[in-house]
Amino acid sequence: MSTRVHHERVRGDGVELHVARVGEGPPVVLLHGFPEDWRSWKHQLPALAGAGFTAVAPDLRGYNESDRPPERSAYHLRHLVADAAAIVRATGHDKAHIVGHDWGGILAWTLAGAHPELVDTLVILNAPHLAIYMEKATRPSLQMLRAWYLLFFRVPRLPEWALSTRDFAAVRDLFRHRPKQPAFSEEDVDGYVRALARPGALTAALNWYRANLGAADAIRLAAGARFDGPVLVIWGEHDPALGVELLEGLERVAPRARVHRIARASHWVQNEAPEEVNRVMIEFMHAESTLNRR
Predict the structure, then answer these.
(1) How many domains is the chain partitioned into structurally?
(2) Which of 68, 9, 10, 13 is nearest to 195 (CA)?
(3) Residue range of the domain that includes 100
(4) Beta bridge partners of 124
(5) Which entry of 37, 83, 102, 120 is annotated as an active-site residue?
(6) Is 228 annotated in the active site?
(7) N or C: which end of the chain has fewer CB within 10 A?
(8) Which position among 18, 32, 76, 267 bears the catalytic label?
(9) What pLDDT, on the 0 to 100 scale, is given for residue 293?
(10) Does residue 95 fall inside a structural domain?
């Protein structure tokens, strides 16, 4: 199976999105988090192609080579869900396996709740369901303390300065020193920084927080999502921002969810433990897929 990456443009909800595609077979749509882009999945793309899937990794709106609308409201969750739905439909299949990490995981949870007909299986990597997150982070708890940065990111202009000063030193530190295991090369880090340094890119990425975390309708949309299909949650246990207590109560929102915890990994689990993540994810998709039974 060829692992050559093909680059395409897909029309989303009023924007054009850059998409990287590898392989042939049932589609797997991979949704990245903050502050990354499609390259977050560099270890998963060839593995999925080799396992008989088409791996589809977009730059989500605002990121890297995808369009960056200037309005904060353009990053509301309803637009993000519409983008993801458009990407699934653009595969030419009725549905796809959906994989999401960090913000991409929150988007994946919400897509599965809003459009279950588009989702074959759901794989979540270190991304809480927002109903559980709100329960834990809005009352006195360790998770509430971990959530300080969410308030900071909603402040105008100051987060852009803090993250970009000294050639994006804070972002570089995030990738170099926060993972539990070595996960990113200097080339990886430089690539992410170049993408964030594009005009308007850092503000666009922060607008995911600003447009949604203070919007009651966006929170209701994500917190109300329920998916009755097969779900795999992969969780790096040393996540500095998202505690393992966010796995409690998953059965209320995803009755068929199973959890695979990785003790030696932190937030960037697909980069810190790629072989284990790939193995568990591919086994799950092969076992649970309705596409492969047709």
Answers:
(1) 1
(2) 68
(3) 6-293
(4) 100, 233
(5) 102
(6) no
(7) C
(8) 267
(9) 53
(10) yes
Query: Among positive and negative, which fits the CA dihedral 86, 200, 78, 249?
Result: positive
Examine residue 148 and state whether it is found in any structural domain, yes or no: yes
Identify the CA nearest to 227 among candidates 269, 288, 292.
288
**Does the annotation count 102 as an active-site position?**
yes
pLDDT at 2: 62
Closest by alpha carbon to 34, among 171, 140, 135?
Answer: 171
**SS3 per-residue string spanning 107-130:** HHHHHHHHCHHHEEEEEEECCCCH
Decide if 49 is inside a domain: yes
Active site residue 177: no
Residue 1 lies in a domain: no
In order of 7, 95, 123, 135, the CA distances from 29 in angstroms are 14, 10, 10, 29
The per-residue pLDDT for range 45-87, each reduced to its tens digit, is 999 999 999 999 999 999 999 999 999 999 999 999 999 999 9
Mean pLDDT, rounded, for 153-179: 96
| pLDDT for position 144 | 81
Set 63, 133, 209, 239: catalytic member: 209
Residue 186: give its domain's CATH number: 3.40.50.1820
Q: How far is CA 17 from the centre of its chain?
A: 15
